[in-house]
Write a structure and sequence with these properties.
Helix 3 packs across helix 5. The two termini are 18 Å apart. The chain has one domain. By secondary structure, it is mainly alpha-helical.
Length: 174
């Protein structure tokens, strides 16, 4: 059921769908298909080609660093998508939305690491949860500091409304 004005006129799928789909992608990234051995079979030859004189240990370290940057990025994107869902159609900073986005991202990081404990080729890691939390928090801090990015998110939603377009000064429910 939809209301007739503002953020309430947009279906929950439109607001929350991207964040939920991204959570599905993160779940996929936590399977055997994206284990260190699998990504290494692709990235290590590429790194060796890019850095032909590098020792095997250096290449392994670069591979591990790229995997950790992946954690930062995955959870940074997740936090922004949850922020977007809660601060729908507003360019103003919404602290409640940011807190919820961070909480969801960190909670999902914990469940993701637990999932990895159940996958034969993976291990769960508290360090990875911390890296995920830093990625989520950093992306939200960048978003807070960038009114232009928040305005772009709001403009995108106004140009692509689920149903109806809010008037000037419309804000989110939360």
């Amino acid at each position: 059921m939809r209301a007739e004005s503002g953020a309430l006129s947009v279906s929950p799928l439109r607001r929350y769908g991207p964040a939920i789909l991204w959570m599905g992608a993160i779940f996929l990234f936590s399977t055997d298909h994206f284990s260190g051995a699998q990504t290494g079979s692709l990235l290590l030859p590429l790194l060796a080609w890019l850095f032909p004189g590098a020792a095997a240990e250096t290449l392994a370290l670069l591979h591990e660093a790229l995997r950790k940057v992946g954690h930062l990025t995955e959870y940074g994107v997740l936090a922004v998508l949850w922020y977007r869902a809660r601060a729908y159609r507003t360019a103003a900073w919404v602290p409640e939305a940011a807190r919820l986005a961070l909480l969801v991202a960190v909670a999902y990081a914990v469940t993701d690491e637990f999932h990895q404990v159940l996958v034969a080729s993976r291990t769960g890691s508290g360090v990875d949860v911390a890296i995920d939390a830093v990625g989520a928090a950093a992306s939200l801090l960048l978003l807070r500091g960038s009114g232009a990015a928040r305005a772009a998110l709001a403009r995108h939603e106004e140009k692509n409304p689920g149903r109806g377009t809010p008037g000037p000064g419309a804000s989110s429910e939360g």
